[in-house]
Amino acid sequence: MVDSRRMPGERRRIASMRALLHDECLSELELRGDERILEVGCDVGQLSRSLAAAVPTGSVVATEECPYRFEIARVESSGREESDRLEVRRAESGLPLTHEEWGSFDVVVARHALQDAHDPEEFLIECVRALRPGGRIVVVDDDYAGLQLAPAVDGFEDLWAGFVDGMCELGRDPFVGRRVPAMLNAAGARPLRSQAVFCGGIAGDARFEATTGILFDALMRGAGWLVTQGKCDEQTATRVLDGFDAWRRRIDAAVWWSVCLVEGRRRVGAFFSMTP
């Protein structure tokens, strides 16, 4: 399949998508300013730096497993006004916390980290273990079932299903967001609330451009997986991609898509060994 229409500036679009969501996520945390925060899976540290700026008398520990993203987060966090309140650590095997730090954080934030976790349930147990009794955990992650386009794009649902199936083949859960309340409860945190954070939009606004750029890339991967598996021919896949590309240029195009935000609180009576 010809890949020449892969949209340029993919990293820039993903960064803009994170920026659009990141303001709402930061607002939902309702920070006082003195919290001790742990961000798990900080990517390149965009939210980490905002968290540090939001807690002038607190502190932030941000962890990232990917060496490349960790290095960007580390470099970008240096030399800033909030740098003395932010420490970026590489997570090579579990959370890189000292014995004294387990059970000490006021807030744990995990944003789009569950899909990359080898064991999401164990991942959340570890996150809750890092909280002090009564501390809060906020998890933001995807559920791809709620995506809607208008007007409809012929063949889109088949390619999107291919992308979702490909994720499942790789051992990632495309519907993990809906399972977070149950997983938090099992991990020792009482679920407090759930909320949909909207990331859709209508043609012409920045949110629409960012979201449809990411969707186009996902469709490309879904099409490639379907063609490789013999579930779709290349001509059909190309036709659907052309249709989506034309759709996103319509002045009446709109996309509805939300991510799941769930907040929980570590139960005061929950007991963990402080050494995982």
List keywords for this structure.
globular; three-stranded antiparallel sheet; 40% helix; Rossmann fold; single chain
Overview of this structure, please?
This protein has a single domain (10-266), classed as Rossmann fold, CATH 3.40.50.150. The strands form two sheets. The chain has a seven-stranded mixed sheet, sandwiched between helices. The protein is an alpha/beta fold and 276 residues long. Helices cover 40% and strands 22% of the residues.
The CATH class designation is: Alpha Beta
Q: What is the mean pLDDT? A: 87
- Give the DSSP E fraction (strand runs of 2 or more residues): 15-25%
Q: What's the CATH topology name? A: Rossmann fold
Number of strands: 10
Can you count the helices?
Answer: 8
Summarize the amount of helix as a percent range.
Answer: 25-40%
Q: What is the succession of H and E elements? A: HEHEHEEHEEHHEEHHEE
CATH superfamily: Vaccinia Virus protein VP39
| Coarse morphology | globular
Which structural class is indicated by helix and strand composition?
A: alpha/beta
Report the span from N to C terminus.
47 Å
In short:
The protein is of the alpha/beta class and 276 residues long. It has helices at 10-29, 46-54, 67-77, 120-130, 156-169, 180-187, 206-228, 234-247, and strands at residues 36-40, 59-64, 86-90, 105-111, 131-141, 148-150, 189-198, 201-202, 254-256, 258-266.
